[in-house]
Design goal:
Blueprint (H helix, E strand, L loop, with lengths): L15 H25 L6 E5 L2 E4 L3 E22 L5 E8 L4 E5 L7 E7 L6 E14 L6 E13 L9 E4 L1 E6 L35 H7 L14 H7 L54 H28 L1
Parallel strand pairs: 1-9, 2-10
Antiparallel strand pairs: 1-3, 3-6, 3-7, 3-8, 4-7, 5-6, 8-10
Helix pairs in contact: 1-4
Amino acid sequence: MPAVSDLRTGGGRVSKKKQAWITAGYAVMLALTFSVLTLGSPAVALTEVSIGSAHVEQNAPAAVPITIHNAADLGSVDLELVFNPAIVTVTTITAGDFDVTVTNLEETATGFVKIVAFQAKNPGLNGTVVLAQVTLYARAAVDSTTPLNISVNRMTDATPFCRDISYSVTNGSCTVISSAATPTPSATPPSETGGGGVLFSVSLDSDGDGYSDHYERLTGSDPNDPCDPDPTCSACLASRKEIPPVVATPGVSVRAMPLPSSTPSTPVPAIEQPAPPSAVPAREEHVLDVHKPPGTLVLILLAAILLSGLLLLAVSRGWWKLR
């Protein structure tokens, strides 16, 4: 396109008609560029982790779900739920939509619980996903309220690379209300045991230490080292050829046990129990899907580019005619 300095008339000014053509050409180019960028970059909703607000009757339990919205190939979540232990306590946590859910209630008395969930043998989760159902027990006076705050440590996709997923958090609250019937006084609230968690469909375990490869990658341990993260497991001891120490039976004196004789005794053949069939599924090959753009979008982009070229050609020809 000729420079603006070449478009000046003899009087040193640009013709109004030429200036109008130039302005129209730039406007068309900007409009087409904006439309192409808009069509080529569709908006993606951000993944949201939320817990609802609940009204729990005094001295009674109630379940509150932790939900993940707008999930896309979700593979794992590691988070903590924080609350005021003087108002409510967490008694149980029920697994949601993930293949494997591990919970830790050891710190319930101090005001938080930990939940780790991930996919083991099934594909990543999409859309609205229920992470877990948290059962709260209201122990404070009526109208007492505590925030229910979620702290996400990490969220990854279901690919072998465990890529981090961006997310937002919506916290909730719990308010104690009066019960419909007069509750029976209880000396103590329900027991706050925990620390074990619930596991479902445990997947590939390369080193045989009882932790799946996906969980070890998530927590930063080596999936091929039987001594990581638990150096006392049977797989680690077997790899080192160590024999676990014998635990003394209560009520039996160690001093009363006879010392081993120097004369070897006749060995007694041991009866080996058949090993149970392995519940570990075969290794699954993860194939990274490459999503091709829809044919309609490609046609629209090509048409926009062609139209832009035709309009630029028309603008150039009109300018030369005016000249």
